[in-house]
Write a structure and sequence with these properties.
Elements: E1 2-4, E2 15-17, E3 21-26, E4 29-34, H1 45-66, H2 68-76, H3 84-95
Antiparallel strand pairs: 1-4, 2-3, 3-4
Helix pairs in contact: 1-3
Amino acid sequence: MARVNKQSILNDVRGAIGKQFVVKQYAHGSVLSAYPDMSRVKHSKLQKVKQVIFAAAVAYAQSIVRDPVKKKAFARKLKKNERVYNAAIKEYLKKNGS
């Protein structure tokens, strides 16, 4: 893990660079670390079930966000500063047992 000062060119970069490095932002500056190796992780049966449910929730939210009519109708029932995508995921998970 390498720390980078605030004047670095990585100051505005976030996320993965290829599958080699990850740039994270903290109060003290940017941190450059190795990309995590998840190849040996064994998920439990319950984790696999939850991953499938969440993937379906994401697909549901994306379908709403991509359709302007559905998105506008969904946005009407939201509170101020709520995002359609996040609210759609929350709604799906509430209805479909997560």
